[in-house]
Design brief:
By secondary structure, this protein is of the alpha/beta class. 29% of the residues lie in helices and 35% in strands. It has one domain: Rossmann fold, CATH 3.40.50.2020. The longest helix has 13 residues.
């Protein structure tokens, strides 16, 4: 794994990420970042580093579900608001919907209505960048409402799955690459 963090902080974060084979289905290797979230020092390191990429964004957008946790903390450090992008059927009012491919099926994301103004600069946060479908769907939802996606950040990028390519010109920042 590689990333921009200082070596001791990087080692601590890497050491907390767990591999869970055959989850959520056989053949998939799930990267569990929950231990990172539960470790105050590692969590603070990750959030501070991710917030350093937010720049002049007006809002941080966290992608369900672990992206909510990271996104909210990143927004506090960066001094912005936070908007969740949710799985389908979780919102009372929806600005837009995107269905996309996963490594093991399809999923649908929704953006809450009235939360991101046209012209807003949005910075998207998620836990893992894998095939890029989730990230591209979230960025597409923001573009659909007239927002400018100024960047995307993930704690972990699975480089062999080439998810970064799905984001086109959106700057991508991964703290760790595997």
């Amino acid at each position: 794994m590689t990333g921009p963090l200082a070596e001791p902080a990087l080692d601590r974060v890497v050491g907390l990420i767990r591999d869970v084979p055959d989850y959520p289905q056989p053949g998939v290797l799930f990267r569990d970042i929950t231990p990172v979230l539960g470790d105050a020092e590692a969590f603070a390191t990750v959030v501070t580093e991710m917030a350093s990429y937010v720049g002049e964004a007006d809002v941080v957008v966290g992608v369900e579900a672990r992206g909510f946790l990271l996104g909210a903390a990143v927004a506090v450090v960066a001094g912005t608001g936070v908007v969740p992008v949710r799985k389908a059927g979780k919102l009372p009012r929806v600005a837009g919907t995107r269905t996309y491919e996963l490594e093991y099926g399809t999923a649908t994301l929704e953006l809450p209505a009235g939360t991101v103004a046209p012209g807003a600069r949005a910075f998207v946060v998620d836990d893992v960048l894998a095939t890029g479908g989730t990230a591209a769907a979230a960025c597409g939802l923001l573009a659909d409402v007239g927002a400018e996606v100024v960047g995307f950040s993930a704690l972990l990028e699975l480089a062999a799955l080439h998810g970064r390519a799905q984001l086109g010109a959106v700057p991508v920042h991964a703290l760790l690459t595997l």
